[in-house]
Design brief:
The protein is α/β, with parallel strands linked by helices. It contains 16 helices and 9 strands.
């Protein structure tokens, strides 16, 4: 059985022990064990969402944690090609030869010959995903392994590492920090920039800045400021729908974990894809220690490779730090520069190179958003919809894009339900 030098991800996969059991059972003529293990492989492939063994092997190589994932992370961090060292390439080729033989072996026929009857096939067990970040690389690697073309498999392996990285973080586009590590978000909340009605003036400079970032040009840390429900968070999350195909990943760091910013950046430094670091709903009290790492990040001292991380924050407060009359310096304070000190604490927002203000929706803007969202949802024209929308806003959270979306979602649910 496979003894890896470098590509040890498959040995961590749930289906691996069953394949080992099948090989032993075939050698020993153990019908019961071979049958049970054959079913175990099928269950594991279904659970993993793999359409067949070839894709399961390719996915395990690319997405499981292990020696290859750590090596790729080190190479990315040092801006090196993962297969340039001769010994690494030889080890990878030896493993790819073994994995290709594993994939091309006719396990189905061998087990069926032993048990004397047909068994459910391991193929077409799941639809091949077209959502995950490194899906294309997994398809290419699976095809190369199935064909026995090890050189092509090596090229696919290196290309996947260069474009998407390796290990668990290579699988997804969206991540959240859970207090200890980055966790992939398999199905992030959907958000479409086209649904942001009446915000064209805000979106133009915002998207131009993101485009510059993805093109490797200088880009500015961005603060989106405005009242709740005005579309700030949707604007950031909508970047996935617009730019995921270009490799963008969205990383959300809750404000409560802002003190762990350095650890988040250390993980991102080991990934090759450009990342938007989303800091949602920022607000601080004066003297909050979480301000320190954020200030350092915006000043550049926490990032050695700043070009791969773009900070985008949202806030209901223009200056981010809550200011009370009691916080202002005493005129008799011995600190002759007390006001300078005070303003320095409050000037966090000034460290963002781009600040975009989102307006509060008025009645007219609110109804325009409702009409556009209703049309996009395919709802029929209705003369009474405006009245219902205004009552909904009055009884609920007032005029805002969020309220308009909630109202249209309710209308669509009632329409679909008959």
């Amino acid at each position: 059985m496979f003894h890896p030098y470098l590509l040890d991800g498959p040995r961590a996969a749930a289906w691996w022990p069953f394949v080992v059991t099948i090989e032993s059972a075939l050698a020993a003529g153990d019908v019961a064990s071979a049958t049970a293990a054959h079913a175990g492989v099928a269950r594991a492939l279904i659970d993993a969402g793999s359409p067949d063994l070839a894709h399961a092997v390719a996915g395990a190589v690319l997405f499981e944690d292990g020696t290859w994932a750590r090596h790729v992370g080190n190479a990315v961090e040092r801006q090196r090609d993962p297969l340039v060292p001769g010994g690494v390439r030889e080890a990878a080729l030896a493993d790819l030869h073994a994995l290709s033989a594993l994939v091309r072996r006719d396990w189905q026929r061998e087990v069926e010959t032993l048990v004397g009857r047909a068994l459910p096939n391991w193929c077409d067990l799941a639809a091949a995903s077209n959502v995950e970040a490194a899906t294309v690389g997994a398809h290419r690697l699976a095809a190369a392994l199935s064909s026995g073309d090890v050189e092509r498999a090596s090229a696919a392996l290196a290309e996947a590492a260069r474009t998407a990285g390796a290990g668990p973080l290579a699988r997804h586009h969206a991540f959240a920090w859970d207090g200890a590590r980055l966790v992939g978000v398999r199905a992030p909340a959907s958000a479409r920039l086209d649904d942001l009605i009446g915000l064209e003036r805000q979106l133009e400079p915002f998207l131009a800045n993101v485009e510059a970032f993805l093109a490797g040009q200088p880009a500015l840390a961005t603060l989106l400021y405005g009242p709740r429900g005005s579309g700030k968070s949707t604007t950031v999350r909508g970047l996935l729908e617009r730019f995921a195909s270009r490799g963008l990943q969205l990383v959300e760091l809750p404000v409560a974990h802002l003190g762990q910013l350095g650890r988040v950046l250390a993980e991102l430094a080991r990934q090759p894809r450009p990342a938007v670091l989303m800091l949602d709903d920022l607000a601080f009290d004066d003297g909050d220690e979480r301000l320190r790492p954020l200030k350092s990040l915006l000043e550049g001292s926490l990032l050695t490779r700043r070009e791969r991380v773009l900070v985008i924050a949202t806030s209901n407060r223009r200056h981010l730090v809550r200011e009370r009359h009691g916080d202002r310096p005493d005129p008799l304070d011995a600190d002759v520069h007390a006001w300078d000190t005070h303003h320095d604490r409050l000037a966090l927002a000034d460290r963002f190179g781009l600040t975009i203000t989102f307006p509060m929706a008025d009645r007219r803007a609110f109804l325009a958003i409702v009409a556009a969202l209703a049309a996009a949802a395919g709802l029929p024209a209705d003369e009474t919809r405006e009245g219902r929308a205004l009552r909904f806003a009055t009884w609920g959270n007032g005029y805002s894009g969020r309220t308009a979306r909630q109202f249209v979602d309710r209308e669509r649910a009632e329409h679909d339900g008959g």
